[in-house]
Amino acid sequence: MVPRVWSLMRFLIKGSVAGGAVYLVYDQELLGPSDKSQAVLQKAEELPAPPKFNFHIRDSWNSGIIKVMSALSAAPSKACEYSREGWDYLKERIK
């Protein structure tokens, strides 16, 4: 039941975004004559530029994935090391 609801929500969200884009293009008359399209383009160029941040999203976005992958890549060697320590401990206890 949940997968169906989730896929329906995804479909509705994507449809809403696509519908909004089509409405915006139609409302701004971007598909009309070239002089109107050029006027809309000039209007869009007059808008202020987005602010610049010194925050790198990539560094924090993938940090969890990088940590998990580094732990998974070190897991075989750590497992070998821990098993060797375990065997050495058992050998000492048996003697």
From TrEMBL:
Under InterPro entries, the record lists: Mic13 (IPR026769)
The protein's location, in the record's own words, is: Mitochondrion inner membrane
How is this protein situated with respect to the membrane?
Single-pass membrane protein
Instruction: Determine the domain of life of the protein's source.
Output: Eukaryota
Signal peptide region: none
A GO CC term assigned to this protein in UniProt = MICOS complex
Sorted alphabetically, the keyword list is: Membrane, Mitochondrion, Mitochondrion inner membrane, Transmembrane, Transmembrane helix
Identify the main location: mitochondrion
GO biological process entries: cristae formation
Q: What does this protein do?
A: Component of the MICOS complex, a large protein complex of the mitochondrial inner membrane that plays crucial roles in the maintenance of crista junctions, inner membrane architecture, and formation of contact sites to the outer membrane.
Q: How does it assemble?
A: Component of the mitochondrial contact site and cristae organizing system (MICOS) complex.
Q: What is stated as this protein's family in its record?
A: Belongs to the MICOS complex subunit Mic13 family.
Q: What is this protein called?
A: MICOS complex subunit MIC13
Q: Which organism is it from?
A: Panthera pardus
